[in-house]
Amino acid sequence: MREGFRKELKDLKNEVVGIGRSIIETTNESVRALVDGDVDLAEKVIAADPEIDARCLAIEEHSLEIIATQFPVARDLRLLHSLGYMSMHLERMGDLAVNIAKAARRTAERVGPQTLYDLIQAQGNLVHRVLEAMLEALDNVDLDLARKLPELDEPIDHLFKQFFRELARLQDEEDIEWASQMVLASRYLERIADHAVDVGERITYMVTGEFEQSVDAVPAHHAKTEKSPENR
Questions:
Q1: pLDDT tens, 139-182?
Q2: How does DSSP assign 178-226, residue by residue?
Q3: Full-prediction pTM beyond 0.85?
Q4: Out of 38, 137, 158, 159, which could bridge 123 as a Cys pair, Cβ 3.0 to 4.6 Å?
Q5: What fold does the segment set 2-214 form as a domain?
Q6: How many whole angstroms separate alpha carbon 11 and alpha carbon 158?
Q7: Ranges of each domain in the chain
């Protein structure tokens, strides 16, 4: 009986890691769609979102089912609660990737300054690194790596601020309209990384039973702010 329970926990954790892999792919594709002006790729990202949402919801439901039927305690209970919590953040990351894809759809007809494309790509590369580290920390239960995520997030925040300096140099009204979509995309990438940092904190809690919240953690009351009206 307990062997089956252990397998169920392992399978649930593996599914969360699998969703994380899908989020990495989706985020990479949304950035590529924005940089390349690839509308077809943007539509692919948008179309994949319902499946990610469904998988994340299934994690929450399965976690609750196991808690209700198996009565786990201590570390097992923290694991189940944490996996449900992580799935919520993964779902929001997917929403943010969709917002980037929608920005790509809006800007595909307009070619802007190469500097901002380069900044978006650089930020996307850094977000990819953070997401990979997040999944590695979860998969290997690596506390040192989980605690390093805020440090990996810092350069992403700096690039987001740099967007405003570049924006101030634009004079043409059409350029400014285009750049505003790019700034929003940069903001969405920053938020994806922030969610990854929050997942890292939950990994620490899952193992130690103690919260170690960083200043960049995503506040709970921001739960449904990811699907911003301007990008629906």
A1: 999 999 999 999 999 999 888 888 777 777 776 665 777 888 88
A2: HHHHHHHHHHHHHHHHHHHHHHHHHHHHHHHS-----TTPPPGGGTT-S
A3: yes
A4: 159
A5: Methane Monooxygenase Hydroxylase; Chain G, domain 1 (1.20.58)
A6: 38
A7: 2-214
